[in-house]
Amino acid sequence: MINPYEEMNWQSALKIGSATHMHIANQETLNNGYKYGIRHFPISNYYPSAPYNSETKISDFWLRQHWAARMDDGTILEPPINWNQIITWQDDLDEPHRSQLPVVESERVFSNIPEDAIISPNAEHHGFSNSRSHICSPGSSFTSGNIDPKEQYHLKRHGFCVGFGGTWQEGFEGMIENLVYPDGGGITINHPTWFSQLSEEHVFEMLDFDESVLGIEIYNDYSQKRNWFENPNYKAPSESEPGFSLNLWDRILSTGRKCWGVCVPDHSVKQGTNWNGRNILLVPEFTEHNCLKAYRQGQFYGCLKGNGLTVKDLLATPSTISIELNAPAIIKFITETGIVSTVKGERATYNIPQRDGNPSLMYVRIEVEDDSGERLFLQPVTYK
Question: 308-384: which CATH number, 3.40.50.2020, 2.60.40.10, 3.40.1390.30, 3.40.50.2000?
Answer without folding.
Answer: 2.60.40.10
